[in-house]
Amino acid sequence: MRLDKFLADMGYGSRKEVKQAIKKGFVAVNGQQVKSDKFQVAEQEDQVSFAGELVRYQKDFYYLLNKPAGVISATTDPEKTVLDLFAAEDYRRDLFPVGRLDKDTEGLLLITNDGQLAHRLLSPKKHVEKEYYAEVRGIMTEEDRQQFLQGIELDGEALMPAQLTILKVDEQAETSTITLILHEGKFHQVKRMVQAVGKEVTYLKRIRMGGLQLPKDLALGEYRLVTEKELAQLSAEPAEG
């Protein structure tokens, strides 16, 4: 790999910026100063240092974010995005959210630069489970649960079966708390499904995507690296069909 690409991939600046740094003598390979941006490095074997700091090569990055309400699931937007929550030392131009959560929805969002993993997780053929916790205005019933399990229709389209669990019903306040497991990701799907049975979602949080759970100790707006165990669970090929 070219030295300038190696350093740009690791977030040390744009290709133009790292070329200038190399020419100014800021970069060494295996202890020897290198001033050619075309110099070839073996990214897993050669020791590259920038201004005396050892640069460890890592191709793919995976972060688990607890998205707060009011933030857009996008890379760029006039409004605040999920990437605006990242510290300068963790931010990379190639990071993006895997899928979207509505602006007012909280919870688990995977941020990565691994396009292949994102494609597998979002592919309609894979049916990767997504689990949500919701607070609802209205009384959710066993009839609703059966309807979701059979697959309700939205705008003339039959949805895949969804698993509704009724956690609590407050008959006096006429409210319910539920979890809902989906196997697809239609636009505003949870809100529209609940609305289709005559109730309204007042609060929504995603708590799981595939084998990745939202950690209880991760505060709103905080993020952390995905662990090797979590990554292995995410990377496991879901069954097609």
UniProtKB/TrEMBL annotation:
Which superkingdom does the taxonomy of this entry point to? Bacteria
Q: Which GO terms describe its cellular component?
A: cytosol
> Which CDD domains does the UniProt entry name for this protein?
PseudoU_synth_RsuA, S4
Q: Which Pfam families match?
A: PseudoU_synth_2 (PF00849), S4 (PF01479)
In short, the EC number is 5.4.99.-
Q: Does the keyword Transport apply?
A: no
Domain annotation RNA-binding S4: ranges: 1-59
Q: What is this protein called?
A: Pseudouridine synthase
* Annotated organism of origin: Enterococcus gallinarum
